[in-house]
Design brief:
It contains one helix and 37 strands. With 416 residues, it is mainly β. It has a single domain, classed as Methylamine Dehydrogenase, Chain H (7 Propeller).
Amino acid sequence: MLGWRKVGWLAVVAALMAPGCWLQSGFDQRRSSNNAGETAVTAAKVGSLAKAWEVAGASAGGDPVVNGGTAYLSTGTTVEARNLATGAARWSAPVADVESLAIGGGHIWAAAADTGCSLTALAPATGATVATLGFGGNAFDFGSNGRSYCGISEGLVRGNTVVISWSYFGAALARGSCFPNFTYQTGSGTGTVDAETGELISETGGVGSPGCAPASADPANTLSSDGNVVYMPSGNQIVRIGLCSGQACAPLTLPAGVSAGGVVVPADGGRLVLTGGNQLLVLSAATGAVQWSAPFTPSTFSAPAVTATTIYVTGADGVVAAFPLAGCGAATCSPSWSDTSSGEVSGAPRVGGDVVYVAGGQGNEVRAYAAGGCGASSCAPVATIDLGGPSYISPVIDSGTLFVQEGGGVAAYRLP
């Protein structure tokens, strides 16, 4: 790990924390996917969006992040800084296999995973590497004799820290014999890093001793937080990292048959919203007790989008549905509106102001809905944006710009 001098970082942090900017995957530490500050693109204007620029090959690396007139995105081999309005390149940094980007502590944080897992801090003005941390076991690739695999979650910026979870598996064999120090090593864990200094604050988990028997590791799951406790889905539990009543928080156990997908922390606190298989559930954040639920067929594991009043969920066959966050006064609720007629949906829904966006996968489109519905139980899109290729990742909307995966790259759509 490299350290750095914090010269003038307070000014940089202030510039990077302007309100309304899409600073990490899912918009904020709650993973709400809700940019309530978006005012340029409205339900009345969304149909006029037109492609302003695109970056070929920039289909990896999760959400683009946006701040101060600059968009940051990953191409799979580099991290790029682009002028938000024109797409003109500002810098390119050679960071490969990036899974997510986040802005925190005056730096661009790139979480990358392939044979190993790493978290790299880049200077936002130049793209220079200022810190790199590694997680998991040894990174190696022996071709047909074996390799290591590491998965890393989307970096969670929480106050002055960056938190990730990771999962590692390594297997190396030669003619049936074990390679010492490499064979069948597995493990998983989390890491918390000071976003300003790059110092590792704490870790959980680790990699076990090598052996000659196959093993599996817990997956790296996307984290969310209410600012105090970090929530991590893990099978039929939600692991809580932090203090509850002065002691380490115990995990929350989900109802029988429920395996947690995405977890979102509503802004009003005290509860959690999660998707799990064929259900949407709202739980007490303190006890895990179900406040209300909704059956959802077909299955969905994409995280919901959550505003101050509404939960938006998508399903594998193209269904888009909205539910009142407060529930319906009963244990099981029906959607306040839905669309079941529009075909495939890929990824999570995203909200910008009064518009909900969903990507249409192989439908080569992004569909936009009025967030408040249409006054009926079944609502059609207010606009459909035809793309030049499949879109398999969730849209991002910020500062009047809609980012979508389009074929082999990322395209930015803006109003004329």
